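seq as requested:
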Amino acid sequence: MLVINLRRVYLRRVFVKASRVITKRKRRATMEKLEQIKQTLSEIDHRTPDALRVAFGLGYRVSPAPAPGEEDRVASFAASVLPPPPPVSEDADANDPGQLHEEVPLDSTSEDDAAKVLRMEWASCYLPDHDEDAHFGHGDAGVVGVADGVGGYRDLGEDAAAFSRGLMTSALMHVMAIDPGTPVCPYTLLERAYDETVASAASGASTAVILSLAGATLKWAYIGDSAFAVLRGGNIVHRSRAQQSYFECPFQLSSPGQGDSIAEADVGEMPVRDGDVVVAGTDGLFDNVFDEELERVVRMGTAQGYSPKNMADVVAGIAYEMSRSPTKDSPFSTESQKQARSDRFHGGKPDDITVVVAFVRDLS
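struct tokens:
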């Protein structure tokens, strides 16, 4: 009996210690702790982080809970700026962009839209984990891009960030060298950046997406699971689909003979309008935030008059908190649980998080 009691005491101590560790992790994994978004947190409504935690079921809040009988100002604020998501069919796959959103025809536009002078006003937020993401943007040229170094090369003792940084650095240099007003073809830009990165003998591999705005047309080229979404009125009207050989193995660019061909890149275009919001990011964003959650954050930001920087920071902040959650379902964990494997994943997925937000503005 004494042995059993001692064992119970020991297990209780282990449980308490583990609980304290989890609690400390939760306290660390808050938007308020992120230096990268301090400025945004001082500019937006102070209730926003907790409103998002309440709305997305993260299970905790930083501000004190109201006393019995008192109004919960955080919950009231969340209800006012974060309307519940629309009902989704039980057969719909929350991680399949084609099943949740009625996408607009990619070739549909009006003469009025085509005649407008549109500009891309962009900003970004980067929250590193292993620091292997890279991105760039050029507002005058209307071009943005993100890339994600493949972490498997880190385990081989190689610089897993070299290829992603090479791609984005080369792409930006080419954009800066073109004459103002010259339309940019994302595929051509990605291809040139790839050729130069290979020529530099950069190690590793990378996924990538490049988007450009030409007139009223958004064009793209991407390889792998660096992704983007176009939102109109707070709803996703187009969402890229990840390219992967199998789960956790996205298409990737690397030295010839080691990765996928640049010719495998998905290329396309669609008409956009004044007021559209484009969100691009690495899998650190899209592995942790469901599409309908992204929609709700963008709706909230639009209603609150966020700048692109405010929006990028808040989207990245909520992705960061979700990535540190041990229990909150994520797109990655949802997909993991479908796989016939023993190491099924639960909770968020810690990773580098890059978010680029671009507002489409009418300057005519």
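The chain has twelve helices and 13 strands.
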